[in-house]
Specification:
GO terms for molecular function: kinase activity. The protein is α/β, with parallel strands linked by helices. Helices cover 48% and strands 12% of the residues. The chain has 7 helices and 4 strands. 30% of the residues are buried.
């Protein structure tokens, strides 16, 4: 890597639990560098139930404001929200564009059986900042998750590092 930092960018990580978002986010944060904002970790550190949707929504709104402030200061930011809905991804993409920022979407997908295997291992390890997710809960999530298609992915900038999906 050379000494010239790339222009600040917003990176959205999209995927179901167990898809590898945190692993990729940590690597990208080191390599770019970027500030990584992960609601699960913050909620766990603060002793908040990871399934408290009201708190999660409030925290994600605060993180979005913080991400915009950081980008104005020249810092790249990774939002590790999961971005299950197209509307959420559109909102952040358009918000980043309004600030003149490149915006990447990294969609991480894996078959349900693989996600279950990873989640079972993670649940057994008791990794801090992670919620235990059963197969039944994951299958409910699969039903509401809106995976980005090729047309949507084309609306985002090419990643500087890593992979898009």
């Amino acid at each position: 890597m050379d000494d010239v930092s790339p222009e600040p960018r917003l990176i959205l990580l999209c995927g179901l639990p167990g898809s590898g978002k945190t692993t990729l986010a940590k690597r990208l944060a080191r390599e770019l560098p970027a500030v990584r904002l992960c609601p699960d970790e913050w909620m766990a550190d603060l002793g908040i139930d990871l399934f408290d949707e009201n708190i999660r929504d409030r925290l994600e709104r605060r993180f979005w404001e913080h991400a915009q402030d950081l980008s104005r200061l020249g810092q790249s930011v990774i939002l590790e929200f999961g971005f299950w809905a197209r509307a959420e991804r559109d909102e952040k993409r358009l918000g980043a564009r309004a600030l003149g920022l490149p915006v990447e979407l990294h969609y991480l997908a894996a078959p349900v059986d693989e996600l279950c295997r990873r989640l079972e291992a993670r649940n057994g390890e008791g990794v801090p900042g992670t919620a235990p997710v059963s197969r039944e809960l994951l299958e409910e999530y699969v039903e509401i998750f809106q995976a980005p298609d090729a047309d949507e992915l084309a609306l985002f900038d090419e990643p500087l590092l890593g992979r898009r999906g």
